[in-house]
Amino acid sequence: MKHGKSYNKAKESYDKNQEYPLDEALEILGKFPPLKFDQSVEAAFRLNVNPRHADQMVRGTVVLPNGTGKSVRVLVITRGPKEQEALDAGADMVGADEYLPKIKDGWTDVDVIIATPDMMGELGRLGRILGPRGLMPNPKVGTVTMDITKAVSEAKAGRIEYRVDKSGIIHAPVGKISFSTEQLAENTRTLFKELLRAKPTAVKGTYVKSAFMSATMSPSIRIEVGSLTD
Question: Domains of the chain by range and CATH?
Answer without folding.
Answer: 7-67+159-229 (3.30.190.20), 74-156 (3.40.50.790)
